[in-house]
Request: fold
Amino acid sequence: MRLQVIGDPVLHSKSPVIQGAMIRALGLDIPYAAKTVARGDLPQYLQWAETFGITGFNATMPHKEDLLPLLDQLDPGADAAGAANTVCRRDNRWIGFNTDGAGSIEAMKEVQMDPQGRAVLVLGAGGAARAVVPALLQAGADNVTVCNRNLARAEALCERAGKGSTAAPFTPEELTRQAKRAELVVNCTNLGMGGTGQQFPDFSFLEALPQDTPIFDLIYHPAETELLSRGKALGHPISNGLGMLVWQAVLALEHFLQQSLDRPAMAAAARRALAG
Reply:
């Protein structure tokens, strides 16, 4: 087996550290490396990967959506998300999976933010939200409201995700209105991400959240975004996206190996490697 993670940029990716730690914990010797693949070069990469015996790869920006028409088969998760972050070579065919959504649910459960039965407020309607919203509904969220600056994009996401999801504009007034009834907040935007210099223009909606409403931010760098910091100051439980990063990798390795793993043990190995 030979495994990779592709993207542009990708050399900063933590996937080789995480996957390498889990592979070693299993006592296996499987190479896993990062490879820069520019946007538009996916067809050439797939040909190269087939020739040189790549048996699976993870995909990050900007390839998760662009991969779909190039693959031979999609699993339900990738089809629902409209994106693939894990691709396996099986029987001379490329099969796409998406572990971001299921990984986010595992991460939420790990920190007692299980979405089952909750009204969830999702911020953003980009690639991350397209994976997370269907997963929230599948996990039993009571309803999911997606707030996005481009309302049409949120509406398209909700139409794809199906019953139980609704779109709303990303304005201070609407965020405040939605926050009043939210039982879980999930940030799928890049607002607050290290290096972007972008922040929420207005955090006042956090003051409308019911007491002890959890806030889950998919961003893991910095470890505590301004959103999480403000939420914590108001007494809300918070969690960043490191757990999602770990859990989506655990699920991806199961696809690569085509076997169920001791998921908590794999997650622990990955966290030790990241801490080291």
About this structure: The mean pLDDT is 96. Residues 242-257 form the longest helix (16 residues). The first strand starts at residue 3 and ends at 7. The domain at 3-100+243-275 is CATH 3.40.50.10860 (Rossmann fold).
